[in-house]
Amino acid sequence: MKNLTKSHRALAAAAVIALPLGLAACGDDGGGSGGEAKLTLAHSYTEDQPQHTCGAEVIKKGVEDAGVDLTVEIFPASQLGGDADRIASVQSGDIDIDIQGASALAAVYEPVGVLDAAYAFPDADALDNYFTSGAVDQLKEDFKAASDVSILGAWSAGARQFTANEPIREPADLDGLRMRFPGSPQFLLNAKALGAKATEVAYEELYLALQQGVVDGQENPIVNIQATNLVEVQDYLSMSNHQQNSNLIVAGPAYDDLTDEQKSALDDAVADAVEQMPGCVEKAEKEILDGYEAEDSIEIVDDVDTEAFSEQTDAWFRENLEGDSLAVYESIKDSQQ
Question: Any signal peptide, and if so, which residues (predicted)?
């Protein structure tokens, strides 16, 4: 997925920059009647990925069906900038709602990135439980205080898996492999905790880097592996499930300017999307994996020693994380007791 050029992003931003200003008329006392307000919702995914079809579109439909004089305009595929650019735009009010990975949000509040720590959550249900049990409340408050951005909800967009030209079944199998990890601090910490040698390569350049042998392997959710055709340049898909690929739904200052009725409609729409996402991701992944097996396009390794990986990463994070980041990690693990 390519971002728009700088000039195109500027034009897109110019088209929506005035929108949040219209929300001020709604007031925040629950009794505003400033007419219809429009929210912009941005994300980096293609229109056929679950984050769009079962995420952004569900939020849009839920809000607009509520009949509270509120509409949502979606800008997919990084049309309004990459992750690092968009969180700044959410803070400034140029984008109202964004779907972001926790690691990208760490640019404005570092401890939130710990949500993406390797094996922090054993599965999508554990992540959902953390966000619905109240255990996340302190993190949400601290994030809001640091960034003036609200976390409305979160889901797992599937577990991240390893691909390489040899199987990865245990931590020792990563020795000597040049594994591509995203360049955000939490992902690089994950590489260390997993025992991998991290090599930074842009997502858009990953296929070519694998094809040319610049890197030996990589890690991504199955839907991303499929979207970039990585099975064409990798021999093994090792089902390590080493990280729940988090998506947080965040909202900037416009959220605080909504009426209580509009806030409730938006909150309910986000909750609906959060509820639907696991089924959508599971269906998409099953279709992809069934296709791989039918076409024999890549060998699927399903006997990965995830317990060995999990024990290793847990010990590493408890020893190396500090302060608020360690507190977040411990709160995640405590929520699973």
Answer: 1-25
